[in-house]
Amino acid sequence: MSQPHVVPPPEPGAGPVDPEEELTRLLRDLRTRPEGLTGREAARRLVIAGPNELVRTPGPPWWSQLVAQLVHPLALLLWLAAVLAWVAGTPPLAVAIVAVILLNALFAFFQERHAERAVEALSEYLPPHATVLRDGRPVRVEARELVPGDVIVVGEGDRVSADTRLLSGSVEVDLSALNGESLPVRRAPGGASDVPLLEATDLLFTGTSCTAGECRAVVFATGMRTELGRIAALSQRVEHVPSPLEVQVLHVARLIAVVAVAMGAGFLVVGTLLTGLSLADTLSFAIGLLVANVPEGLLPTITLALAVGVRLLAREGALVKRLSAVETLGSTSVICTDKTGTLTLNRMRGMRLWTGGSEYDAGSPPALPGGRLATAMSCCHNVSVDPDHPDDQDAWVGDPTELALVRLATALGPPEQSWQRVTQFHFDPTLRRMSTLDRSGDRLVLHTKGAPEELLPLCTRVAAADGTDAPMTGRDRTDLDALVRRWAADGLRVLAVADRPVGSVTGPGERAETERDLALVGLVGMVDPPRPEVPAAVARCHDAGIRLLVVTGDHELTARRVAEQVGIGAGGLRVVGGHQLDAMPEQELDALLEAEGEIVFARSSPEAKMRIADALQEQGHVVAMTGDGVNDAPALRRADIGVAMGLSGTDVAREAATMVLTDDNFATVVSAVSEGRRVYDNVRKFIVYIFAHATPEVVPFLVYAFAGGAVPLPLTVMQILAIDLGTETLPALALGREPAEPGLMERPPRDRSAGVIDGPMLARAWGLLGGVSAVLVTALFFATLLAGGWSPGADVGSGAMHEVWRQATTMTFLGIVACQVGTAIAARTTRASLATIGFATNRLLLWGILFELVFAAAVVTLPPLQVVFGTARPEAWQVAALLPLPVLVWGADELWRGSQRRRERVGAVAGRPGADRAAVGRSG
User: Fold this and answer.
1) What distance in Å separates the CA atoms of residue 717 and residue 284, rounded to the nearest whole number?
2) Which residue among the candidates 163, 174, 338, 554 is catalytic per the annotation?
3) Active site includes 338?
4) In angstroms, rounded to a whole number, what is the distance separating the alpha carbons of residues 810 and 718?
5) How far is CA 654 from the centre of its chain?
6) 379-414 pLDDT, tens per residue?
7) Which option is the CATH number for 349-508: 3.40.1110.10, 3.40.50.2300, 3.30.420.240, 1.10.260.40?
8) pLDDT per residue over 158-194, tens digit each?
9) Quick one: which of 114, 438, 722, 824 is 20 to 30 A from 362 by CA?
């Protein structure tokens, strides 16, 4: 038997089609009937169509991720050094290097290990069971057993198990998981066929929930063929793009590898052919050169610094699931933000009301006990009130708009009578109104609320202040229309409220007959206020050169007003609707995004959000995108930083995102960007600190090689490891906690292609800080040799000269440590002076320096460590010679930074833009 042909709903623009004819054709093509399939036929189709479940593409196994850490370019260099150490006859050194490799790999592996569970979270939207017609009678089956052609029964409280088309009945469904809209929508057989898929009024989709009513519907798609399955497939097809830091660290690792291997190989030749060194000596030299060039502590230091950033962001309300994302936040140049709950409080509030011919401020509403407006608002809603605590408004549950109406009704005063609901006409998105039929004693009254443009034409009377009704005149309608326009221009959402006495109970099918000849009892103007901290956060983004785009499923006018209220688009705001964006070719979208000004994208689909992210990334932007619904998952994964809402977001969005906001607050996103910038700056600072020590470690080996044996080796490989993995690690980590420099959020985002390491940075690290340290350390080494009676070419392999040589290598080691102290203090700032940030503002660095000094003292004074590292106890004059080294290194860098600031000020005075002058002033 061939697989049943799945007939999707007609494409938008297909033209009008008779609903009954279309439904008949669908049943025919699915080879089914309104009574459903037989059990045997369903079993056959299950074999062909497969289970009704979402399929996840498995990710890479854990062992491959661990292996990737072991073959990182820096790790490969260390593997080479270990092999050379073993060949050279120093197994303890080889073992120590291998231990370093394994520790680095394991640490990075466990920090980065994160199981992707986006599709598993999507699977939670599939209910475990469904009611289906089999052999003409309803039975309960597992949802995974549904097949195309099945007829299912959906009732209030059920979650839809497959994509279906209604055959009979009517329901209200919550589509928020797919379209982000909070209000339920009505679904019934028939309806227009030339509308977007999610707006088709006769379709139900997998993962949505039925909030009211009951219906029968025929299944036309299951599993990965459903709308939810399509979103799951989009989420899986989006691959992880390495963060800028990941790319740059890999680039730096390759650069270091090339330099180290080239220098080692080159000096193997030099040592053998030109200097006359033995093969053992040249191998020892090559190993030392490799180990000196490779910053063994770089990877764990970066990982730990990012981990610290993750913890700090968690305290701010931002949970980051991937370490490298902290740095990516710092390079964000565009934030695509949702509106409801992110820019706003998602809590509607009544601002103004009109009743009895007068306008009032809702902050001080009129005392209208028993007023018809208060009665209508207190009856026409579906808010749940805790019966044990009816006065606790914070415990009320319901739609934000209805919550605002009920709270306002409570403020107006209690109704004179108690009302009991008889029936309800649910909110209809087409009619844009809702009604309830309520009884009080022998009175039966219809209470209605809805959009003024829909409700006012149904009103023939206006309630006066004394409670009587007067005919609605043309002048009344003109005045009310003007009032509605004025309130709307102020950004208020306006609802009209009306009532009408009814003679008898009317059935739900007689809505049009019931909702007529109404009396307007009032107008209510409400607003979902922006979060109070958002305007300041938006201003910080603008100061930082970050562009803001609002990408939302809400209406264009609502999104525009909220954007303007919080300061988005102050220099020009354009609104682009969903249909307009869908019809926009790629070139036009690129031109739109390249143009100046900020944009509101309204009624956005999942594909549209991905298109926006792709276009921005193609232009070189680093994109952060917020979202909360299932429909946002692909875009959250595609963006450089996907930001999900922790309070209102779905599990799907939270799993697909890189960062989760525990407070759903846009200001937290901006704080995270600031923290990311600080972390990035600090990564550069400790890279300067670490790289600065390569020069004083390498220069002694160069002196040794070029001297051709006339000068002994100034530093041993074990002493280099003591520096790289012992003395420098804690100060480097402390630099990762350095407070932000002045003006951090007042400079533009760095370019996506900008390297974490650049030429000026290397010149400062290797040339200035490293060069000054190398001169000082080399001078200290020769001073110690000469003071001990050494002469060029003397044998230091044994006897008294051997002890002098040990003393000299010890001073080289201690000299580098002393210069590290000065380098650590200098690396705290990039441009600002130390006086600007304060000497003691990073106490962790002071503790790190103290540990560094204590560790170095232990290495040179404790006998067991002296044996391991080949050191000797220094004399008093040698310790005194170490004291000025930190000040000399820091002072040289301070003078250089001062000259940089002076040059920038001179350039600004000479006529550079004012923004540049401001930046210079902020740099200290």
Assistant:
1) 8
2) 338
3) yes
4) 12
5) 10
6) 998 787 766 666 777 667 777 788 888 888 888 877
7) 3.40.1110.10
8) 778 899 999 888 887 877 667 655 556 778 887 666 6
9) 438
